[in-house]
Amino acid sequence: MNTFGRVFRVSIFGESHGEEIGVVLDGVEPGIELSEKDFAKDIDRRRSGAKGTTPRIEADEPHILSGVYEGYTTGAPLTIVFRNTNTRSGDYAKLKDIPRPGHADFTANVKYGGFQDPRGGGHFSGRLTLPIVAAGVVAKKILAETVSEETHGHVQFRCEARLMEIGGIADPSKWDAALTQAQKEGDSLGGVVECVVDGIPAGLGEPFWDSVESVLAHALFAIPGVRGVEFGDGFAAARMKGSEHNDCFTADGIGGHEGIVTPVTNHAGGMNGGITNGNPLVFRVAFKPTSSIAKTQRTYDFAAQEMTDFQVPGRHDTCFALRTPVIVEAMAAIVLADLIDIA
Amino acid sequence: MNTFGRVFRVSIFGESHGEEIGVVLDGVEPGIELSEKDFAKDIDRRRSGAKGTTPRIEADEPHILSGVYEGYTTGAPLTIVFRNTNTRSGDYAKLKDIPRPGHADFTANVKYGGFQDPRGGGHFSGRLTLPIVAAGVVAKKILAETVSEETHGHVQFRCEARLMEIGGIADPSKWDAALTQAQKEGDSLGGVVECVVDGIPAGLGEPFWDSVESVLAHALFAIPGVRGVEFGDGFAAARMKGSEHNDCFTADGIGGHEGIVTPVTNHAGGMNGGITNGNPLVFRVAFKPTSSIAKTQRTYDFAAQEMTDFQVPGRHDTCFALRTPVIVEAMAAIVLADLIDIA
Amino acid sequence: MNTFGRVFRVSIFGESHGEEIGVVLDGVEPGIELSEKDFAKDIDRRRSGAKGTTPRIEADEPHILSGVYEGYTTGAPLTIVFRNTNTRSGDYAKLKDIPRPGHADFTANVKYGGFQDPRGGGHFSGRLTLPIVAAGVVAKKILAETVSEETHGHVQFRCEARLMEIGGIADPSKWDAALTQAQKEGDSLGGVVECVVDGIPAGLGEPFWDSVESVLAHALFAIPGVRGVEFGDGFAAARMKGSEHNDCFTADGIGGHEGIVTPVTNHAGGMNGGITNGNPLVFRVAFKPTSSIAKTQRTYDFAAQEMTDFQVPGRHDTCFALRTPVIVEAMAAIVLADLIDIA
Amino acid sequence: MNTFGRVFRVSIFGESHGEEIGVVLDGVEPGIELSEKDFAKDIDRRRSGAKGTTPRIEADEPHILSGVYEGYTTGAPLTIVFRNTNTRSGDYAKLKDIPRPGHADFTANVKYGGFQDPRGGGHFSGRLTLPIVAAGVVAKKILAETVSEETHGHVQFRCEARLMEIGGIADPSKWDAALTQAQKEGDSLGGVVECVVDGIPAGLGEPFWDSVESVLAHALFAIPGVRGVEFGDGFAAARMKGSEHNDCFTADGIGGHEGIVTPVTNHAGGMNGGITNGNPLVFRVAFKPTSSIAKTQRTYDFAAQEMTDFQVPGRHDTCFALRTPVIVEAMAAIVLADLIDIA
């Protein structure tokens, strides 16, 4: 299913080397000011070009096809498309015979019986996170406006993700060297992103199936290359005692919403029983190292039916996690825009 | 929303201290042999009574209300209920004034405006995992039958979760002492559960939104007290290099499905691009320490509007993670029974 | 799928001759006063016993299993069950060999491969409209409260269905004779029900897929035995000219909502472009004659593989349409309670 | 919600006078041969230009944006767009002040607070049925292939709708005169379309909520201008006796599927208990007369707050029902492609 959400709903389409990729947003309320230039900042944060990212550089210009009239959303489905221009499809000819380790080439072939578009990973490509970023921009606008309205401007919505570590290194001053080294070895690195969302009201989420954690994790694990998601203390909570992990309540709440007393510590990451408690949401996402590496890998040739030495064709990120904080933010905003509509 | 799934759908209802709790299963195929006794083993694994678990012991007898006729499922909605008997509601009178730290008392009150059933956590109670276990039993039956049919009995479906650590201790021989100590201190412990699912076909899951990881994580984070979920190498993958983390292909696949060549390593935990690759699914779930502790906690009294010393009333697990492996299995089976129906 | 609705969601379960039938309502807002006695009036309207209805009389006593605490809805799933008592299952033994003409015996057998519960139509029985009526009672309460709140008591929600004709006869004074005659002939009659819903705000429904007509028709055609649904002028509209059928606007609107100018005629039945316009909703539902008749029918014996004379066993309504107005109302209320939640 | 379907899912977007309109199809199986030229025939049947249809003529050239690779569907979301070229937006300036009777101008304004795109009805325009026709072409292909495969070519899928009457006239030889007369009067006509679907297997549909009738009616009432839907004998069934309306079974079934004995009469229109019985599906759809008429209408000016004489600007069909049979077919195919996927 290519759609996510219950009231604010996001559908994506397109392939890495197809003509266009895009997103249809359903359930966008009318009257939100929106134009193509609103997307520039976040799209830029996802763009490649910096050290550790792929030399495939796309214009990534959003084009609003529907749902906006005279500068405001109409309430009808909002469609945003991006043209693919800088594609080199010749690179991907042999991927059915020798599926790239770590990629979806093999599983796509099993699932779609060879009919999938193999170029650049087709619909499985990380390029599909571009329309996600666009959807995130709209979601952030909805949230900022809703929060501001409901609190008469007293509370600001804030959704910020940043890279905590690359290749296990937490000190950003050492990242450049690590990237250079990995690139030299023809290898790649992973990373961990932390996201903090502040300003959202207490009471979002549903008991059990649609707990805030459930819906957020659902969206976050949809980002290609995610291996783990944790909230608040996360895996460390399993090693704590109840007296250490519990967030006791106090009148001087972090959340600061008028009349709401929130916990002053935030071990739970902003929710209890799957419902937001007014504290900031805090969660971390683990990204694997880029699967495409220059280094030779020993893998199976399904056509020749024998093991073979294999080098991944195409242009790739040394550490695609560098480009993911804005995608993580987008997913958080998409989920919360839906939950705030339902509440 | 109290329902999960697209074709095999699970709805739960009930409150901890209400008359009955139950589950409605939709999309169960007809002709599966099923009776109340099929639930005994898994329900027993969830039951309390052992060291570290609550002294509230329930009969937990499943009663099939609909959807089974002459010993076989009919294809109509399958309803299973459990009667609540051993309830002590007097314990929970003051929870609106002094919400228990770590529990949903506060957030439920915000969300439901004081109308929620506060007794034992009401609909937020861990007791609602009992119908989940029942749903898991049916899901496992569906999967075992489907896998066996499709592979002519060559492959067996297997779904097994076990506790990997308690309170940060990986050696089971030391758990008893740790539980005794925590209990003595009036404190509680968390734990980590690992689940392995074997025998499922390659090709399950959808690109992006309904990746296997997304749907599994959605269900797993619905279990009360989960703080983190990771697949394969999980968070450790973020510290590995691509050449270490990639699963290269080989003719001697672990999966062993006829004609399918699967990766011999399993760093990804059984999926690529969100689609199962024939390897066993492997994932871990972090459970927080039990929130209800005997130890006095300093928290806020919303009625008196001042800080207060607080001791949690009621009977509780020292380490509820002890009871969760069968719940984790149930969630995995519920998700896979749905994905296998769609594929 | 046994569930209907997006935010206010209705799931039904059970079989005609099973132990219990029931309904789970999800998305019910907290704080609505509700007890078992609220259901009495509508359940009574559906009950058999009058001329033209089956002699199978059930107690039909609703039992609230979950979702209500101290007399008010909690916001958690609301479960209502009914015990089946007056069942005579011996009647239905041969229905797999000789499926009853007009019933689901044949199609259920194809779909469920013989595993369906054949007693009294099993899950296909009209008895499943009893939990629908219960759901309708809750939906009406939600609507009445919402409309009254939003209009500060100026507008009352009203949802009333009545039988317009039986066996093609519009004059109620002649119905008794027609029923007597049909019963004497061992035959059955159909009927047409008209429903008017007043007091709902303009703006409900969605363009295209979830037009008010679409969602209402979806629910109405779920009632067993419905053959047609029409809105406003309905099929007659196809024979009118635009100048006759258009509802022009006027300041003296029927709808009477403050500040809203609605059409003074109501050919469209209360909606334009799939969205309510403030006029009363008006629609009609055609019910077929009861399929179970005493008269001998010439049909096929699938066991003997030959044509046979067949008389339907069991006890039945001469005109089940007599019992449907309250079911039609329930469906309208269920749909509108969902649409008003989304708007 | 702009999406319909559970497994085969159809999302539409765009506005009458926007840049492009389109459809995203999700759940399309891989390996179906598809190119732009496959759409020509059905699009042509919907096109205007004939007597009684609007002089706004569009190229209506489909453009496949994603989901097809080297001439075959890939299994990824299939996006088809159409460029709007022949638009005259100046015509629609005053519709917020004087909403066109019978149109969605008024209700859209209530629902979207004035932010809707008013040009040509915006997202409410009948032009959105163009992507529906495109979706129908894909659905028909899926059905034809599935039916042929499952019956080894013995059964052909057939889905044919035709106009039964215009302005109440059943004799086609008299339609031309009626259209001429209506046009002369500046008025418009409605019509009734009948659709027959043959070749589909018995067993499609679900009991209650997703009965075949329910899901078909849901889709059919989404077509702008539909006032009624009836199956088999439809409203006439309400005037028949059970002995006349029941379809008895016989060995010489109409359906003709090997080994399936279907009813020889077809009063029910091809289903029992909401499940297809192997007989052809037969249903009728009533279309209102075109709302836009040249004739002066007396209606309300919301800006001037007084009644006014009003003439609808723009170019319109005298009888848009003329263009609907292919849309009705498309809706039937869309629904059945989804139901056949679920079964």
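Residues 129-150 of chain C form the longest helix (22 residues).
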